[in-house]
Write a structure and sequence with these properties.
Blueprint: E1 3-6, E2 9-11, E3 22-25, E4 28-30, E5 43-45, E6 48-50, E7 63-65, E8 67-70, E9 89-92, E10 110-112, E11 131-132, H1 176-180
Parallel strand pairs: 1-3, 2-4, 3-5, 4-6, 5-7, 6-8, 8-9, 9-10, 10-11
């Protein structure tokens, strides 16, 4: 069993050079480096990450419960390997390009002003969430639950409605080309 660290602030810490053998609760990480770090089987509960680099971190069975990421670099993150129990993240102004949310339940999560380019949302559950001002260029939506998902301020998404659950989803007029692209029609 890992040591539990609570109510601590880590600033400028390199978690790659210093291996992690603890679980974290109510902790704040500022400008920390986790890129390609082994976070497997670790638990983060009610933690905040600000200006951190977590790109390519190993997330196998890592638990993120009510965690907030602000202005973080999170390229190529494999959230599909995280522990699913109580998974909840809020990402604000983060770079999540090339990440994987395959079959992840995101109904309790939020994405605000994030770059989500080339992200895999195949079979994920995004029902009821808002993708506020998020750039979704090249992201994959296949058999994805998008019921009541708010795309009204999202940018550059392309999806095939027949291949996803879209009942009650909200789209802007400007986003219609992303819904009609698969039909090879011209919109003027």
């Amino acid at each position: 069993m890992n040591e539990l660290l609570t109510d601590k602030t880590f600033e400028g810490h390199n978690f790659v050079e210093n291996s992690i053998v603890a679980d974290f609760e109510d902790c704040v990480f500022k400008s920390c480096f986790f890129a390609k770090a082994k976070l497997s089987n670790l638990s983060f509960t009610n933690c905040t990450f600000e200006n951190c680099d977590l790109s390519g971190a190993n997330l196998h069975k890592a638990a993120f419960q009510d965690c907030e990421f602000i202005s973080c670099k999170m390229l190529g993150m494999g959230f599909d390997t995280c522990a699913s129990f109580l998974f909840q993240i809020t990402c604000d102004s983060c770079l999540l390009n090339f990440s994987n949310f395959y079959k992840v339940d995101l109904t309790s999560s939020q994405f605000i002003k994030c770059q989500l380019k080339e992200v895999d949302f195949t079979e994920a559950n995004l029902s009821g969430i808002s993708l506020t001002e998020c750039d979704l260029a090249g992201s994959t939506f296949e058999q994805t639950n998008l019921q009541k998902t708010d795309f009204s301020s999202a940018l550059n998404y392309t999806l095939i409605p027949e291949h996803n659950k879209v009942t009650g989803a909200i789209f802007s007029k400007e986003g219609l080309p992303g819904l009609l692209n698969s039909y090879k029609i011209k919109i003027v």
